[in-house]
Design goal:
Layout: E1 2-3, E2 7-8, E3 14-16, E4 22-24, H1 32-42, E5 50-52, H2 64-70, E6 75-78, H3 80-87, E7 97-99, E8 105-107, E9 112-116, E10 128-131, E11 137-139, H4 150-153, H5 163-177, H6 186-194, E12 203-206, E13 212-213, H7 216-225, H8 237-247, H9 255-262
Parallel strand pairs: 4-5, 5-6, 6-7, 11-12
Antiparallel strand pairs: 1-2, 3-4, 8-9, 9-10, 10-11, 12-13
The protein binds fe (ii) ion.
């Protein structure tokens, strides 16, 4: 997803091939057909058991309702608040929902996943989870990083992005997406970072960052530093008007027409 002035933001969804398969997030509204085709390559929708929603923002819920129709066994994993937010727009049958709070676990047959609240978030319904079989940590917007190009945004490994560029992108995104972070009690915030289950994860799969292997320590160090960064201030109306005036086409009447118009 290209965000003008910010960069190319990865928007990831994941299939966890557990005994009871899980889809983590459902893509963007504008790419439903493509998302559905890719998902159908990854697994049989009849086998899909869980749709884990990290939070109900629109860049995560694109194919949710379509998939609840197409995957009859699948239940939506979210929080009470997540369901409430979704219910403003959608009717979701309660028997298709499984409410999971931070700290609670879900048995997938061959493994258990345990939900947690990431240190940074832009929705009160946000959770990530840790897979106890592999230690993999799935997160939401936390650790997100808008990239300089679409190629970098779709990289298979965060190691493909120069480390300094990735860190700068994560710092930018953290201040854009979680502006409240500048006003927190620093000690309490540092504790949430220290106690984040991502700390020991060999693999972090975030919805807005390329897959990151053995990067949990630098990722969390970076997240810990965010309260002292300068707050993000978006372009204002004057900036928008300057931008628009730059794009305004010059009058291009032929000379004759212009004279005619003046006469
Ligand atoms: Fe997001």
């Amino acid at each position: 997803m290209e965000i003008p002035g910010i960069g190319h933001l990865p928007v990831n969804a994941f299939v966890l091939r557990a005994e009871q398969p899980v889809l983590v997030d459902t893509g963007m509204p504008g790419s439903r057909d493509e998302f559905g085709a890719l998902l159908a390559e990854a697994l049989d929708l009849d086998d899909l058991r869980w749709i884990y929603l990290t939070h109900p923002d629109r860049d995560h819920t694109g194919s949710l309702m379509r998939l609840l129709d197409a995957a009859p066994q699948a239940r939506l994993v979210t929080t009470f608040l997540g369901l409430g937010i979704l219910s403003i727009e959608h009717q979701i049958p309660p028997d298709r929902v499984h409410l999971l709070n931070p700290g609670q676990s879900l048995d997938l047959g061959d493994r258990t996943i345990t939900a947690f609240r990431p240190p940074l978030f832009d929705s009160p319904a946000t959770t990530g989870f840790v897979d106890d079989r592999t230690g993999t940590c799935f997160t939401s917007d936390c650790f997100g990083a808008p990239m300089a190009s679409a190629e970098l945004a779709t990289a298979d490994d965060a190691a493909d992005v120069p480390a300094d560029d990735l860190a700068a992108a994560q710092q930018l995104w953290a201040t854009v997406d979680s502006p409240w972070v500048h006003g927190v009690d620093r000690a309490a915030y540092a504790r949430t970072v220290r106690e984040c289950p991502a700390l020991d994860a060999p693999l972090i799969l975030g919805t807005h960052v390329p897959p990151a292997r053995d990067r949990s320590a630098p990722f969390l160090d970076l997240i810990a530093s965010v309260p002292s960064l300068p707050p993000f201030v978006g372009p204002d109306q004057a900036a928008l008007e300057a931008l628009l005036s730059g794009f305004a086409p010059e009058p291009r009447l032929p000379q004759d027409d212009r004279e005619h118009a003046h006469s």
